């Protein structure tokens, strides 16, 4: 199976075009007001409007009031929700949409328990735990914390870039990889060449998997 790719934290129409032209499977929009990559509804609408068919659109929220999630869903064609905070399962499933639950990885995290607790999620997105910052940090975590036999798709995230994504795929064998900082020239400003290099790194790993 080819490794799916999500490019997250887009704030500009041209970056959505660069991601889709490079072959990204999904793009993510950050609806977390404290993020430098935060987008409002109108900005999000403009970005989503240029996407071709079959690119999954993901809305990222961090401990958001339910009303804010509902407002985004009512206004925008979002395919999938990404909950990047401490949202409990009942909250995540209350919107009646497919969702990914984020686990911020550090020693002691039990992913088997997370998978059981969020059994109706479409997968677990694994990001690095950084005190005081919920995500988009550009930090990696120790991939050996991920067990091999989890019962749901894993989206690997946290400090990925064109140079390390091949090793990440060969070691973890995730369903998908997710990148934000690693394809940027500044926070929220993506770079078409970095996106293309990241996609190439994924494709190279897919054709030369570890033995
Ligand atoms: O991008 C942000 O600013 C952000 C804010 C709050 C929660 C998550 C955020 N980003 C997501 O974090 C992961 C890892 O990002 P990175 O590649 O390490 O920069 C990814 O899903 C981002 O979209």
From TrEMBL:
<comment type="similarity">
    <text>Belongs to the TrpF family.</text>
</comment>
<protein>
    <recommendedName>
        <fullName>N-(5'-phosphoribosyl)anthranilate isomerase</fullName>
        <ecNumber>5.3.1.24</ecNumber>
    </recommendedName>
</protein>
<dbReference type="Pfam" id="PF00697">
    <property type="entry name" value="PRAI"/>
</dbReference>
<dbReference type="GO" id="GO:0004640">
    <property type="term" value="F:phosphoribosylanthranilate isomerase activity"/>
</dbReference>
<dbReference type="InterPro" id="IPR044643">
    <property type="entry name" value="TrpF_fam"/>
</dbReference>
<dbReference type="InterPro" id="IPR011060">
    <property type="entry name" value="RibuloseP-bd_barrel"/>
</dbReference>
<dbReference type="InterPro" id="IPR013785">
    <property type="entry name" value="Aldolase_TIM"/>
</dbReference>
<dbReference type="InterPro" id="IPR001240">
    <property type="entry name" value="PRAI_dom"/>
</dbReference>
<keyword id="KW-0057">Aromatic amino acid biosynthesis</keyword>
<comment type="pathway">
    <text>Amino-acid biosynthesis; L-tryptophan biosynthesis; L-tryptophan from chorismate: step 3/5.</text>
</comment>
<keyword id="KW-0413">Isomerase</keyword>
<keyword id="KW-0822">Tryptophan biosynthesis</keyword>
<feature type="domain" description="N-(5'phosphoribosyl) anthranilate isomerase (PRAI)">
    <location>
        <begin position="5"/>
        <end position="200"/>
    </location>
</feature>
<keyword id="KW-0028">Amino-acid biosynthesis</keyword>
């Amino acid at each position: 199976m080819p490794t799916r790719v999500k490019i997250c934290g887009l704030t500009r129409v041209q970056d959505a075009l660069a991601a889709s032209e490079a072959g990204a499977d999904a793009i993510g929009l950050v609806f977390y007001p404290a993020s430098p990559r935060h987008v409002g509804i109108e900005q999000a609408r403009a970005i989503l409007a240029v996407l071709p068919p079959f690119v999954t659109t993901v809305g990222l929220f961090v401990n958001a009031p339910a009303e804010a999630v509902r407002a985004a869903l009512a206004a925008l064609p979002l395919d999938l929700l990404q909950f990047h905070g401490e949202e409990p399962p009942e909250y995540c499933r209350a919107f009646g949409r497919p969702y990914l639950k984020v686990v911020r990885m550090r020693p002691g995290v039990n992913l088997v328990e997370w998978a059981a607790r969020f059994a109706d999620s479409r997968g677990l997105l694994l990001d690095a735990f950084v005190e005081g910052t919920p995500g988009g940090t550009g930090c990696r975590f120790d991939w050996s914390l991920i067990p091999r036999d989890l019962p749901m798709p894993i989206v690997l995230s946290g400090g990925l870039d064109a140079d390390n994504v091949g090793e990440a795929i060969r070691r973890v064998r995730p369903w998908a990889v997710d990148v934000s900082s690693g394809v940027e020239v500044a926070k929220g400003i993506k770079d078409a060449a970095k996106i293309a290099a990241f996609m190439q790194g994924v494709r190279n790993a897919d054709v030369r998997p570890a033995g």
